[in-house]
Design brief:
Blueprint lengths: L2 H8 L2 H18 L6 H25 L1 H4 L3 H4 L11 H23 L1 H22 L6 H5 L6 H10 L4 H24 L1 H6 L5 H24 L2 H4 L5 H23 L3 H28 L1
Helix pairs in contact: 2-3, 2-9, 2-15, 3-6, 3-7, 6-7, 7-9, 9-10, 10-12, 10-15, 12-14, 14-15
Amino acid sequence: MTKVSAYFNLTKPTIVMLFLVTGFASIVVEGSLLSQPWKLLFVLLAMGLTAGSANALNMYFDRDIDALMDRTKRRRPIPLHLISPERAAIFGLVTGALAVGYYFFATNWMAAFWSFFTIAFYVGVYTLWLKRRTPYNIVIGGAAGATAPLIGWAAATGEISPLAWTLFLIVFLWTPPHFWALAIAIQDEYRTAKVPMLPVTHGERRTRIEIFVYTLILVPVTLVPYFLGTNSGYYLGSALVLGAYYLWETVRLLKTKERSDSKKLFWVSIIYLFCLFIALFVDAIFL
């Protein structure tokens, strides 16, 4: 791994990509930035820097946990000694300052606020406060990963619409079942690192039930954008099909005791969210 790729991995690229997809869908649905391609590009770049900053600072503060867990100690730059903790922290602070600064000076204070909120909430509330104290850390902390639609809409208009809030709510409700599926699969690692994830504190059965309940709440919420102004029934049909499949997978998880099935659901949840927001994008652009 080169230095450049190490810094790139410090941002958690998969998370950044999902953040950008949800934010870009919001921008496309709103529409006004589509006629300003350079501004759109920089808004997305700052959005990526926002997520990357939060993730880099998360890795700095979680470096002791990352060094204990197999999932992270062989992949992340700090436990691999490719980047020093101090340089990781500087990288996170600089990228965050660039993101917030761009939104403040080139767009408006509301976009800058939500960019700053994303970083501060993910680092200060989730990483430093909730993660090591409560099994419901991801329920509250997941709000930080759901803000991209708010940032995108605010950057375009200076305000936030009910549709943007609905997209925020979709990602917010999606996050706990997504993360708990992974937590079931690697619960022994969390136990070793003394992180009180739900499977560690309340057991697999309780976690599987909560995954199902959250998904049962999530799926109807994903239909709301249709009633707030999507252009056709394409998004509605896509949300129904995708939601039915995702819900079916959570029912399967209730019936099985195989941890490999929970890892599968983790990846299914990523594909589900990606496809859901792509459907929103297609509906807004082509239909």
